[in-house]
Amino acid sequence: MASFALTNLLLDVTNPRFETEQQNQRDAINRMAVEQGDKILNLAEDIVQFGVDPSSLPLVIAADDGIKQIVVEGNRRIVALKLLHNPQLAPEVWSAAQEKKLKELSQQFKSIPPSTNRNTLIPRVCTISIKETKSNNIYHELRRIHLDQYPFAIAVLFRVFLELSVDHYIIEKKLKTIQELDQMKMRAKLELAASNLESKGSMTRRQANTLRSFGNPQKFLAASIDNFHAYVHDSHFSAGRSDLISAWDSLELFFKKFL
């Protein structure tokens, strides 16, 4: 999965959402804001609260200059991100209330500390109250030990913590017996937990689908079950600091639901 700087991602000026082809990037952003105003703001708010949905990454093609990328799927998400970075990109298209909301969201977004600045898997600002002793002890160890010194130990503990957390939720909600749970694969456990959280209204469909995507072998995600299995069983698979941090950041919301 490739990564690109936001400044190198260009909107598709021929996007079918537009009635006519836009002349340049500023026109495209303005038109998107005019036509999708509240949806853009709602998406921006979702990004501030939960981060970018890893199951809905944009689809891009190379631009003619060989450096920039044209977004062919996911333009609205990219506009939301660009506006969070710079709310002045689309001046004079918002109502007073919309403009105020956008500026507030931008301030919140910019105040979020970059996850890559930490040297522990779990950020200090994350607090989870865990009653089960073993899971609680693992959680506190993962808050203390350093990624640059013990990446493999952290990766294995992380894998254990994930399964214990999902198992706890399934048993607590009486979705399966312990005997039934012992026969289930991790992918099936994630699917069961996601469906239950969605049916209860504890998660939106989008959030539940994100949780399901971690068990999808077709999704190349840092928090994929295949990666977690490889940390334990593949002698050639290394635990990367940035991948581990990305995986925690993707799963943090769900741990708070499970425990």
Detailed description of the structure:
This protein has helices spanning 25-35, 37-50, 75-85, 96-111, 133-144, 151-172, 178-182, 186-199, 205-213, 225-233, 241-258; strands at 9-11, 59-62, 69-73. With 259 residues, it is mainly α. A three-stranded mixed sheet has the order 1-3-2. Helix 5 packs antiparallel against helix 6, helix 6 crosses helix 10 (225-233) and helix 8 (186-199) packs antiparallel against helix 9 (205-213).
In short:
By secondary structure, the protein is mainly alpha-helical. It is built from eleven helices and three strands; from the N terminus they run E-H-H-E-E-H-H-H-H-H-H-H-H-H. Helix 2 crosses helix 3 and helix 6 packs parallel to helix 11.
The separation of the N and C termini measures 31 Å
Lateral strand order in the biggest sheet: 1-3-2
Q: List segments where confidence is low: pLDDT < 50 over at least 5 consecutive residues.
A: none
- Radius of gyration of CA atoms, rounded to a whole number: 20 Å
Question: Which descriptor suits the 3D outline?
Answer: elongated
- What is the beta-strand fraction? under 5%
By DSSP, the count of extended strands is 3
Q: Which series of helices and strands comes N to C?
A: EHHEEHHHHHHHHH
The biggest beta sheet is recorded as: 3 strands, mixed
How many H/I helical runs? 11
**Overall pLDDT level:** 88
Total number of distinct structural domains: 2
Percent of residues in helices: 40-55%
Structural class: mainly alpha
